[in-house]
Amino acid sequence: MSKWTDQLPEAAREYIGNRRVDEVECVIGDIAGVARGKAMPAAKFAKQTNYFLPNSIFLQTITGEWADNPFDAFTEPDMILEPDWTTATAAPWTADVTLQVIHDAKDQMGNLVGFAPRNVLRRIVKLYNDQGWTPVVAPEMEFFLTARNIDPNQPVIPPMGRTGRRAAGKQAYSLSAVDEYGKVIDDIYDFAEAQGLEIDGILQEGGAGQIELNLAHGDPVRLADDVFFFKRLIREAALRHDCFATFMAKPIAGEPGSAMHIHTSVVDSKTGKNLFSGPRGVETEAFLHFIGGLQRHLGAGVALFAPYVNSYRRYVPDFAAPINLEWGRDNRTTGLRVPISTPAARRVENRLPGMDCNPYLGIAVTLACGYLGLVNKTAPRPEFSGNAYIDSDEIPTTLGDALDLLEEDKALIEVMGEDFIKVYDSVKRNEYKEFQQVISPWEREHLLLNV
């Protein structure tokens, strides 16, 4: 067999050039989408075909604690991690020549581990493929650049721009606002180019220091990998310029939250034709059934794309976030928007996911809900016209309520995988319990001396 570097994608080979690779990071995303794994000298990596990590990494919470074991016999067996060479990419912010490679998690019998988030997404994509369909997605990433915040007791504030003033809000689409932190944007572009990641566009969003980065449409697993990589490279670019990048859903009070809108269409695997468009470009029954599935099941799916207590601070009226499961054509106030497009590009935009969600799971649950609508031929409600920023009892308002809704949706659980839901529920209920034990500044300010 040829040397392992011959298996690398073109961008990774170009990054290496004639240099010697110093280190390889063997990476896998956990339940939160945090990069876990091992870093090793490239020479050692070249001599191995797989690596080992305990499957308990999927029970670690965002605070570093360990969730309750949802299985009867859990002895922390090792998983076998196998490199997916198509994901190999540079880590261009490092001082030496370092590569990152996403790995597939398998059990010791060679089966994909069902509660690994990347495998969950692959499971959903296979359900489509078995029907002769190919799902296509395009995620949008919103995030904030902020001043360094080393004391969690202090509020997050916008970063200082090149003018010496802090970034201002209410400057959506302003090129001058983006130029305020142009050096960070330059590094984001440079890192993305070195990694072979495609950026469709960058713009100023409505919040102070808030940026939107759009990705071109494509394969769901590849796009989830890209978002996974982008989160890391954006953080590294910000740190180079003495600021933070955050993907929290609502990091700054009084500012809009950050979403990960997901555009989805489905094409016939043989013909490549969009299932949402029929002869002469008319909308099809499949298009309406896909929307119907989203309306029927996304309420339960909120637990997966609003995964933290902070996520629910984004779902408030008049802050450009949907608080409903209505659908409408070119209507940004609905949770499900049908953008203006040609018939070949007809798609549905799910505007509910927050940027704090695991990209594999946000895309997986969107596709899962649409799949259920397609196979069950679920009819949607009538299109909503007008302003849909209304109160709605379809969207849970707390993480606990969202997890309860998820537990009740047996069809969604079956599609996502029962073992995965058990692990996810255990992790999230543990995090929610920890949060409930924290006393907030609001409680001390208003209750300490008044009640």
Mean residue pLDDT? 93
What's the architecture of the largest domain in CATH terms?
A: 2-Layer Sandwich
Describe the largest sheet: 8 strands, mixed
Any idea what the CATH superfamily of the largest domain is called? Glutamine synthetase/guanido kinase, catalytic domain
In total, the number of domains comes to 2
Number of strands: 14
Compressed to H and E, one letter per element, the order equals: HEEHEEEEHEHHEEHEEHEEEHHHHH
**Beta-strand percentage?**
15-25%
What is the radius of gyration? 22 Å
Helix content: 25-40%
Which stretches are low in confidence, meaning pLDDT under 50 for 5 or more residues running? none
Q: What is the 3D form?
A: globular
- Number of helical runs? 12
| Distance from first to last alpha carbon | 74 Å
CATH class of the largest domain: Alpha Beta
- Using the coordinates shown, work out and report the CATH topology of the largest domain: Creatine Kinase, Chain A, domain 2
* Classification by helices and strands: alpha+beta
